[in-house]
């Protein structure tokens, strides 16, 4: 399977997916740490991919996403954005709505 197909599969099979440097428990950059804090504050589970441990994904995803930096938050197959956008959405209360909707979708798909 190609790296592009792996990325597309990850995005399609996870309603809330964060491509980040490190892991939620041990972020490896300040932007990833800040994004994780915003997401965790929403209280829903999310999947993540450590781009430092997956250099092929790190080099390929920016071309697919048309977004050059990490972290990248994907919700229901759509790129939401990076740290600044996520932080802004969180402060406005809009991130909670996006995450809640995506989580409801996951529950409905599972049943």
UniProtKB/TrEMBL annotation:
PROSITE patterns: GLUTAREDOXIN_2 (PS51354)
Any Pfam family matching the protein: Glutaredoxin
Keyword vocabulary terms for this entry: 2Fe-2S, Iron, Iron-sulfur, Metal-binding, Redox-active center
UniProt-recorded Gene Ontology molecular function terms: 2 iron, 2 sulfur cluster binding; disulfide oxidoreductase activity; metal ion binding
Positions with a binding annotation for glutathione: 21, 58, 70, 83-84
Domain Glutaredoxin: 16-80
Gene3D superfamilies on file: Glutaredoxin (3.40.30.10)
Binding site for [2Fe-2S] cluster: 29
InterPro entries on file: Glutaredoxin, GRX_PICOT-like, Monothiol_GRX, Monothiol_GRX-rel, Thioredoxin-like_sf
Family statement: Belongs to the glutaredoxin family. Monothiol subfamily.
Name of the protein described by the UniProt record: Glutaredoxin
Species: Pseudohongiella nitratireducens
């Amino acid at each position: 399977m190609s790296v592009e197909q792996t990325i597309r599969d990850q995005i399609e099979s996870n309603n809330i997916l964060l491509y980040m440097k490190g892991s939620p428990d041990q972020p490896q950059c300040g932007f990833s740490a800040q994004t994780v804090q915003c997401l965790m504050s929403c209280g829903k589970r999310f999947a993540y991919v450590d781009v430092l441990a997956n250099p092929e994904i790190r080099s390929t995803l920016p071309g697919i996403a048309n977004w050059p930096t990490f972290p990248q938050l994907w919700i229901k197959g759509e790129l939401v954005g990076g740290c600044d956008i996520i932080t802004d959405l969180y402060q406005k209360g809009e991130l909670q709505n996006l995450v809640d909707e995506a989580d409801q979708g996951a529950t409905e798909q599972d049943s």
